[in-house]
Write a structure and sequence with these properties.
788 residues, alpha/beta, six-stranded mixed sheet, 23 strands, disordered N terminus
Amino acid sequence: MDRLTRSAYSTLRVREQGSVLFAQIHRPDAGNAINATLVRELDEVFARAARAEHTTVVVLEGLPEVFCFGADFGVISDAARTGQDTSFDPEPMFELFRRMAYADVLTVAHVRGKANAGGVGLVAACDVVIADESATFSLSELLFGLIPAVVLPFLIRRTGFQRAHYLAATTQTVDARQAHEWGLVDALGTPSEALLKRHLQRLGRLSKKGVTRYKAYLRELSPLTGHTKDVALATNRQVFGDPDNVRAIRRYAEEGVFPWETETPDSTAPPDAAATPAPKPSPQPSPSETTVKPQHHRATAPPQPPALSPRALGSPRFRAAHGVDYAYAAGAMYKGIASVDLVTALGNAGMLGFFGTGGLPPDEVEDAIICIKKGLDPGRAFGMNLLNNPDDPGQEARTVELYLRHGVRSVEASAYVRPTLALVHYRLAGLGTDAEGRLRQDHHVIAKVSRTEVAEHFLRPAPAPLVRRLLDDGLITPEQAELGARLPLAQDLCVEADSAGHTDGGNAYVLMPAMRALRDRVTREQGYSEEGGEAAVRVGAAGGIGTPEAALAALALGAEFLVTGSINQCTVEAGTSDAVKDLLQGLGVHDTEYAPAGDMFEVGARVQAVRKSTFFPARAQKLYELYVRHDSLDDLDPRTRATLENKYFKRSLDEVWGETRAHLARRHPARLAEVERSPKQKMAHVFRWYFVHSTRLALRGADQRVDYQIHCGPALGAFNTWVRGTDLEPWRGRRVDVIAERLLRETAALLTERLAAYGALAADSTPSSSDPIPGSVPGGPGPLATAE
């Protein structure tokens, strides 16, 4: 298939993956509604796929919340207001549906959220329909005097006459399970992405020749006659040309008033009375929507909330503890990708950045601390990564000693399964009391967690055996041990979901409530002081935060601070190569994948990394599979060995082992003898070499781009979409402090807007005396924003 670029279409996001073409309807500002451009672009995509030599499957997707809402009423309203033709030529849509049903390619609809009106037609025309349990289906046309004339022939083909007639006549919304029972949906499951992947694995086995012959046979069986098309088009033109229907559409698009509602004086203006611009039009509604009026229809408009400042988002206690102006941090990215420049820029902007120490020797870490402190304005804050190192606890201890020596006040504790001696040392060494006997906490731990059993270790005081060892070694005082016994090990818990690098692939909507409930339970059990006290634990969110909508969702889930990661890797200050940034700048939300982790290779731990334009995830997975299946390098067959040497490593396995052996002899001589006695361990270390090598290639920007290992989550793809067409689209215009400030500013504006909308809804109802008082529910979410 001739190469499709993302910029080729204005209403679609298109990507290719082997023999499968993914086309996502992307009109978020219009509810993914159908206009002439979308019909034309979809038809072109399906036509090109049908002609393509190797493309056998096209997957049609929408947004997670809405698949497609049907015809764009805003377009019709605009035409009526300006005196233009309001008719919507139905023939291109009918031909699009027919091409989807019978062209020489298998069509798959992946439905999440709402499918309404013409959106149901898109679904019904596909060969295979896979739906998430969140999906709903409806035909709302008759509410406006319209008829789903173009949709019904394809819907009847799937569900039979009576069920299609029922949907059209009642305008009732049916859920995914009902649609599955009726035959509109072929396969149903949550998460639907996994179900789709399983189907594509089977469909991917089919040849283009076989698919072409099969679809030709289906064309011969088609129940769609020329008469069917003529009647559908004539009916569609008639109802969309009816002035009464056009007035009903315009009234809803401009004023939010449904046709059956009583008209008010300000909703009866004739079509040519357009003295002022109309509000932004809406797509046609689902019949399940409630009839909420625009604000000017209320007798008394509710007071508008004041515009929120970005500085007010999150917890003031977080800002005070870390000495920052914003409850915002940039997480550490290893090998100094979270660089000196990145941390300094954020610090001087009143935010918290963590330097990425992973994989760096102690002297480079110390140099970074010195440079950061020199570059910061007086009183500005910074943080350092503290990485768990079970293979070399001595290095972790030396890192803590370095931090104590240089007065590092905040650390991001990463990859911990349970507390270590070095971590407890850092935390307790910062405890004391002032001249008036008040608690002083000079060291702050932000613990990054994605599992509740790990989080609980941080929520409780430091383990007594570790505290005793520190006392015995004279590393802490009895007072510090006593103070530590009444405080949590970490007072900031950062819940990490679907982020870059090491992650369990958790879901923030599940993890955040669970972590907050755990925090509340442990607080009660330990007898910590209440909210705002010296032992209160703050819960923040990381992973997936690349847009204002995502940041607001995290705050709504109760996040008291926000931590970003992937979006900072594609900035001027990030310490990686320009080649990596060029690649990252073009990522979409589906361009990352989970792959085995090099540092925990043998146990099968996984990281999230870029898959677009790279073979790293696939090759890393192949290495892990070989490790599981074989006991030594000698067990590899000649063909596999040649593949590894010629394609993966670009050198012989003996040469790789030579480099690895030299490294172990220099850094871990005791372990070298153990590895040489175990062929399995030797194989693991040879395979792990590839992970180190692939990271170096990326950091240097070497020519071997297909082997770049780039840790990244889907948040960057969402960010790229958000900033498309702005000054932040090219990465050379992305300054880490600028994107942070813009993200927070737009989040605050969005929150202000949502609060106004909810206030308008609340004004239409009077709470009963039994309604709970906001904020009175135990364990309820924290404030989205607070006074500065």
